Amino acid sequence: MPAFQLFITDDTLGALNPHSSRPNAFDDTSISVGGTVATHATIAVIAAQREEQFRAAMTSRDIISHTKGILMEHFSVDADRAFGPLRALSQRLQRTARRNHSASLPKPNIRPSPDTLRNRRLPRRDTPRAQGSACR
Which residue range is the domain that position 10 belongs to? Predict the structure, then answer.
């Protein structure tokens, strides 16, 4: 019974293991075709993995952008200034910024620690919001 490894360089992605109820069912031609099918299966697995990584990256980007937007609105700062605390929190907790999303959301009347904001206090917006505002 033939077995075809699905691999790229040093990583094994899986195996293609054809079965038959007949003895000696696989000749040289079927082995050759099996190798070709295994190559195509490897390419399909790689494409699926890359698409999954792309979707995860897009989700991370959306979550980080959402969190930055909340900080920008809450503290009336620009995008670069809002990203600073996220980066500092990520480094301090040794986690990705996406995983810090819920931990980084500002709580009412609570300011991030001075270390997180690089010893700068951010002013809280005291102006009333327009009726029907989508923020918060």
Answer: 4-104
